[in-house]
Structures are given as C-alpha cells and as structure tokens.
Amino acid sequence: MAKKIPMRQCVGCGEMKSKKEMMRVLKTEQDSIVLDMTGRKNGRGAYLCVSRECLAKARKNKGLERSFKTSIPKEVYENLEKEFEEEEHAE
To answer: What is the pLDDT along the chain (91 residues), one digit of tens a residue?
Structure first.
C-alpha cells in the first residue's frame, strides 16, 4: 500500500504541498516565532512554500497571524526573511 504523504497548506499562497517541500514556521511555548528546518520541534507550526513571494504574501494577508492567533511584530518577519536567505544560499 502506498504511504500517505502529509500535505500542508501554505499560509502565503494557500497551495497544498507535501510537508517535505515546505518550510515550517514555529510558535514556541515562549511565544517566540522561529523557522523550524527539522519540522520536529514542539509548538504550533504553520507552513510556507520555500519562496520569498510566499513569505511576502503571508505578511500581507496576515497568514501567520491567523495561524498563530497573535499579532506578529515586524522584526519577526525580518528575521524570517534573513533565515530564508541563509537557506537559499545553503543549497
């Protein structure tokens, strides 16, 4: 029997993709918001396509705010953008 692929919806563009193709943004118990590259950390996760456009869309349409039910400071988005860039250069 074929293994079921976990699908997640991007909070930016709204597309459904397999979990492996996406980046997980995590809200920890301390209410800090970080990029979870392993996808295994504890906390509330939201998923984004690995593209800056989706991060920009999520910022504009408040996708992360809706997922985490909290307001997200500008600095958090700036940190996520930095982490995105580091990931892009790492590949």
So the answer is: 778 888 999 999 999 999 988 989 999 888 888 888 888 889 999 999 988 899 999 999 999 999 999 888 888 888 888 887 877 676 5
Structure tokens at 34: 């970080």
Full DSSP string of 8-73: EEBTTT--EEEGGGEEEEEE-TTS-EEEESSS-SSSEEEEEESSHHHHHHHHHHTHHHHHHTS---
Distance CA 44, CA 33 (A): 10
Does the model's pTM come out above 0.90? Answer: no
